[in-house]
Amino acid sequence: MHDLHNELAQYTAGESCFKYEIGKVISQGARHFSFVKDNFDFTEDFNSLTTAVECLRTFLPLSFSTPASNSTDIIDDEIIEKLLGAQKQLRVLSLYGYNIFKLSCELSKLIHLRSLDFSFNPITTLPDSTGVLYNLEILLLSHCTKLIELPSSLGKLINLDYLDLNETKSLKWMPPEFSKLEKLQTLTTFVVSNNDKGSKITELGSLPLLVKLHIVECSKLEFLVNETAGYPNLELLEIISGCDSLTHFKLKSFNKLKYLFIKDCKNLENIEVPEDANWNLQFIEDLGIFDCPKLNLISEAGLPAPSLKSLVISNCNNLESIPNQMYRLTSLEELSIFCCSKLQSFPNGGLPPNLQSLLIEKCDLLTPQHAWGLNNMLSLTELRIIGGCKNLKLFPEEGLLPASLTSLQICEFPVLETLNLNGLLLNSSLEKMEINTCASLRSMSAGSLPSTLSSLKITGCSLMTERCQVGGEDWSKIRHIQNKVING
């Protein structure tokens, strides 16, 4: 099918599209030239190309594998100069993976160029004349691992909308006036320098098209606490790993965020929301905070996020409370809290009423109680509690759980002795229940399990083994369940 499509495209385009093959004569009318790199020898075939064709629009080498670092595909500067000097009408130019060590040629004559690809080349710099290519929309420099700096004139590329700097690990800074690239939609890497030579990260705020921003290993990150820095159209923000100078995070500058993830910021202490009744995070849907050991406060003023669907907090062992007025988060469907050892309770007013999934794990001071408002959550189908509940000998209390629950998992309740079947009387939708590593669990109370229960798994509860065998004290309570595992 690929060959059929290629032949159809060539038939339609006539001689304007030319795919080079060994022994094939290059058409003088060719405007779009492509070739498989393994079949094209620049030394032997290049002269015939430049003499036969003078008005190429596309020069596109094709490769079926990632270029190796020791590749022998090398083009010297003289050949590149000859190519670019002869083809002044180029719109698309790719020298992908040709082991170009030096690029000193003049690019200013290629004013019609829209796409330029130097990916997988060991170049250290680009010519300053790159800034003259004012029609350039795509600049690909992926895996240019020796690239030290970008041309200072890069800010003149006012039509640039895609800049790929993936794996440019030697890049030391971004050129000045980076904020002038107002049409930039995709930027894979922004390197923040430790000196005054390059652009500061605040210049990203001037980009009206910046939608996604990932910040990694930015040890001196401070711009996020600057209330004057605005990011008016930013939808996704990730701050992960090694941003150790970030101690306070202010949400005021991020009005249109949809997704916010903060991870491994070791000195982050609080996340602040403006005390302004007219301000809110009206677009945010997902909020995740992970591995921030000093975090002690998430918005003292509450979290005005009417569209928030998912909130995950994990490994924040200094956190003592979650945001006030959680019950106002009427769109919240998933609340997951993991490894927050100082978290003692949920705020007054209870949890969001429309939760579908509540997962609590390794929060040693938390014990489920009526004040959470679980019984009023008509959409809650999944409840998982692992750890905590240090003084809880009987679970669940009557009226604690909602009738909508379909899956219940409890693990590592250290002193739990009795599974209270009266607390499950109203759970007419319960289908799956798991009880793991509750070593003190010794019996089920009088009563019966819901008839809808089709799966029961009890592990790490050795005192229950004999009681749940055929003829045991609790056998009659579980015999109707189709799938059941009792300690293996």
From TrEMBL:
SUPFAM superfamilies: L domain-like
Recorded coiled-coil stretches: none
Xref: Pfam families: LRR_14
Keyword set, alphabetical order: Repeat
Disease resistance R13L4/SHOC-2-like LRR domain segment(s): 88-216
Protein name (record): Disease resistance R13L4/SHOC-2-like LRR domain-containing protein
